[in-house]
Specification:
- GO terms for molecular function: acyltransferase activity, transferring groups other than amino-acyl groups.
- Pfam families: Acetyltransf_1.
- By secondary structure, the chain is α+β, with helices and mostly antiparallel strands.
- The chain is about 30% helix and about 30% strand.
- The chain has a single domain, classed as Gcn5-related N-acetyltransferase (GNAT) (Aminopeptidase), CATH 3.40.630.
- A seven-stranded mixed sheet has the order 1-2-3-4-5-7-6, sandwiched between helices.
- A hairpin with a 2-residue loop joins strand 6 and strand 7.
- The longest helix is centred in the last third of the chain and has 12 residues.
- The protein starts with 5 loop residues before the first strand and ends with a strand.
- The model has no long low-confidence stretch (mean pLDDT about 90).
Length: about 160
């Protein structure tokens, strides 16, 4: 039996694999991501220790991004979420992506647990498309609760939070 992927802080060498997982999770690829981050954004986030990955040898099996609010406050969908009344002290969680062939192995929970540990269990907020039942259920299993909803670009989203 193959060992489980190892979870830890991302390094610059992980960027290509992170981008591969991100692309596979974009809407045009059948996924449900609401944003696309550049290699430069990931490089900066990695330098700031805002990315955790699951590595299976040389392959990235999944990743989670998390940032202070200010790091993404310029993004229109984030502005819409922030104006919905979310916890002003919370950091932002997401995206969290797991490669198709690594799903249902507990990686999302492991990535989120590592993120929470890294962030000293501070309050956290995220948003998910209202019609993405699988992601909503996964986040509830991780310990988040639905707090409110908002609309952006004609799409309904729910905000989930976890307290500190």
């Amino acid at each position: 039996m193959k060992p489980s992927p190892v979870i830890g802080l991302a390094t610059p060498q992980d960027i290509a694999g992170i981008l591969e997982v991100q692309e596979a999770n974009q809407e045009e690829s059948g996924g449900a991501l609401s944003a696309r981050f550049s290699a430069d954004w990931f490089a900066d986030a990695i330098a700031s220790e805002w990315i955790i990955v699951a590595r299976d040898d040389d392959r990235i099996a999944g990743y989670v991004a998390f940032t202070p609010r200010e790091a993404q406050a310029h993004i229109p969908i984030i502005q819409a979420m922030l104006s919905s009344g979310t916890n002003q002290d919370a950091y932002l969680h997401g995206p969290i992506c797991v490669a198709q062939d690594y799903r249902r192995m507990g990686l999302a929970n492991g990535l989120f647990a590592a993120e929470r540990e890294h962030m000293n269990h501070a309050a956290v907020s995220t948003f998910i498309r209202e019609d993405n039942a699988a992601s909503r259920a996964a986040h509830v299993r991780m310990g988040m609760t639905q707090a409110m909803s908002f609309e952006h670009g004609g799409v309904r989203y729910v905000v989930l939070e976890a307290a500190s």
